[in-house]
Amino acid sequence: MANKKIDPVALIRKEIESLEHKVEQLRDRLMADAHKAMEKAKAQAERARSKLKAEQSKLSELQKKAKASMDAKVHKQLDRAHGAVEAAKEIELDAKALMIMAKDQLADLKGDYQRAKALAKAAQDAAKNFDKNTKPAPKKAAPVKKAAAKKAPAKKAPAKKAAAKKAPAAKKAPAKKAAAKKAPAKAAAKASPSS
């Protein structure tokens, strides 16, 4: 069991699943942070709006007073009120900018999540394709066929050689028999003229 081979596809799949889980957790955390930032920006914008309204009503009251009595104290209060209105406007603009940034961040997070999900799916598909293309059964069958192909010609070659060896022997045997038949005939022919 210690020598058992580790399946690389299984390891890749395990790693992909682990990464997908981490991406999900990260996405959830970032989405929660983005939602919190958006809520915070909304609350800040609401506070800025109410402060702006309060400062504007204060300013209109002071302007009414200024029309009634144009003394130096009212002028100072008027200047302070104008400054407060400007500051409130700036706070509201900052809050709106924060809200826009939070929305953009949320959109970016959604895009990143979609890309990460697509990459994980592509990796999963690649692992499946790799697994299909590298099945162990065809690898074992191929060498057996090659070995069988190599052995078959080796068996045929000696058979041809044996047939080649037998053929000349078969041809020689009738020649010897023919020569043996001719020899007694010649001997008989030689013997008959002398008698």
TrEMBL record:
Composition bias, Low complexity: 135-146, 185-195
Keywords: Coiled coil
Coiled coil: 9-72
Region annotation Disordered: where it falls in the sequence: 122-195
Basic residues biased stretches: 147-164, 173-184
Domain of life: Bacteria
Name of the protein in its database record: Uncharacterized protein
